[in-house]
Amino acid sequence: MSACPYPRISAAASAGWQPAGLDRTTGPLMFWASILFMVFFSLMLHLELDPQVSGEWRWEFARLAASIYWIFPAEAALYWLRGDRLTPGHWLGALLPMFRSGARDHEAAEYIWLPLSGWRKVDSDLEKYLAVFFRWPMVVIAILVVPIVAVELLAGEVLEENLLARRGLEVLTAVIWVAFTLEFILMISVTPKKMKYVLKHWLEILVIALPMLAFLRTARLGRLARLKDLSKTVRAYRTRGLYARWWRAIVALELLDRVQRLDLDNYLANLEDQFEEKKEELTRIEQKLEQTRKELAAKQASTSTASTPQANPTSLRRAA
Fold it and tell me: Considering its fold, how many domains does the chain have in total?
């Protein structure tokens, strides 16, 4: 018997629960708005890491992210004015729109909306489901860092001359960042032991945080350029390149860690398969044992009835 590739969702979560209020509409819309904000924000971060990128492109994505930012605090304000339930996750999503993708409903605060699944109850089954769902896709995403490093090492001069190739690597890097960020947000939203998850997945946090730190570290670049401080400008560019190399090294380490976890997960899945098989076998043995006991008890009762001596009517009349 082979294990199901995706753990079962609990019966309550599979019953097709739907919120009665605004969540029915805002849940899916705000999820995709959060993803869109994440994409704009990621492109802004990773275009910033390229010293040859024009400010127009970088700030265009910044303006796009800012143009939809107001939706998130506006949504929280609307629910607050209506007197609906607002959890810390809702307030966090209002301030940091990326976290809105993992926010729960405003009625029971027990359900989360996911693409292709709809509203799902947040429980251990959903946590296992998402962990298995992200397992192989995230390994593939992490592998994408290999061609990035290979191209930069083997064709660095071509990249300097080819703007389209540079933009392609930047977009690929942004995709990797979005994937890691989305996985972390959804998993931290459904796991009950959040601190344990954070400590266990510290490499993912570095993958997410390092580009933001690099952005903040080099935010003075525009001012330095305006001041014509060439030495500081060059140093800032070198710092950004150093952050980029660190980031790729961390993603590579994360890839190795995930591959090792895949082996452990497969070993664990095999053990669980064997355990389930033994449980079923034990259940069948218990059923056979119970059936045998009943048959034995019935046979003993039949034998006892047959061996009991019957009283002779003639002897009874004589005795009378």
Answer: 1
C-alpha separations of 316 from 89, 300, 305 in Å? 91, 29, 21
Does 201 map to a domain?
yes
Instruction: Please state the pTM of the whole predicted model.
Output: 0.73
Please tell me the least confidently modeled range out of 115-119, 167-171, 219-223, 242-246.
219-223
Tokens matching residue 36: 């869109």
With respect to residue 27, please indicate whether it lies within any of the assigned structural domains: yes
Q: Could you tell me the maximum CA-CA distance found in the chain, to the nearest angstrom?
A: 137
Domain interval for residue 159: 13-215+234-274
Q: Which of 128, 149, 132 lies closest to 253 in space, CA to CA?
A: 149
The closest alpha carbon to 27, from 73, 64, 83, 75, belongs to: 75
- Domain for residue 3, yes or no? no
Over the stretch 231-251, which tens digit does the pLDDT of each residue have?
555 555 566 666 777 777 888
Contact 103, 93 (CB under 8 A): yes
Q: Phi then psi for 111, rounded to 5 degrees?
A: -125, 150
